[in-house]
Specification:
This protein has 161 residues and is an alpha+beta fold. It has 4 helices and 7 strands. It has helices at 2-17, 79-85, 94-98, 141-158; strands at residues 29-37, 46-52, 56-59, 75-76, 102-104, 114-121, 126-132. A hairpin with a 4-residue loop joins β6 and β7.
């Protein structure tokens, strides 16, 4: 009887310790700064937002994207709007969480603009990515899906204020 109990407990332990390595996203994003930019435009050429565990903000002060950009929240969205988009922190691709600063494609080389992502992980590490709006060969399917989701969120938030 003791042997059956030991096998049962060991089986439960194995089942609980298994993880799904096929999962391409990870709940490790403490905050995400995300935006779109264009180099050849007039006026507001960089729409950028930050979401973390408590708030969703927009930097309405900055007009142009620069490589050493630093977010300055100047507008805080309502709790309702935050609730609509807070799950994006759970949708950050593992490739971005575990990766290093990188440029995907050739953002804005043909005046097509680009995306900016800055991820701060729960370990306090910051990762910065600049991503072509075109789907390029170096963008995995999960990067393209994430980029499209971010684009939808930016369009929705841009109509709020």
């Amino acid at each position: 009887m003791k042997l059956y109990y030991t096998i049962f407990v060991f089986s439960i332990f194995l089942l609980l310790s298994c993880s799904n390595d096929d999962d391409q996203t990870i709940n490790n994003g403490e905050s995400l700064i995300f935006g779109t930019f264009a180099g050849e435009c007039f006026g507001d050429c960089f729409d950028v937002f930050r979401i973390n565990g408590t708030t969703l903000e927009e930097d309405q002060v900055v007009d142009f994207f620069i490589e050493n950009y630093s977010f300055k929240g100047s507008f805080t969205f309502s709790e309702e709007q935050y609730s609509m988009y807070k799950n994006i922190l759970n949708e950050i691709p593992r490739e971005l969480i575990n990766g290093s600063d990188k440029t995907y494609g050739c953002p804005d080389c043909a005046d097509q603009g680009g995306f900016y992502f800055e991820i701060t992980t729960s370990e306090g590490k910051t990762k910065k990515y600049i991503v072509d709006t075109d789907n390029t060969d170096d963008q995995s399917a999960v990067i393209v899906t994430f980029k499209n989701r971010i684009s939808e969120i930016i369009k929705a938030l841009s109509t709020v204020n």
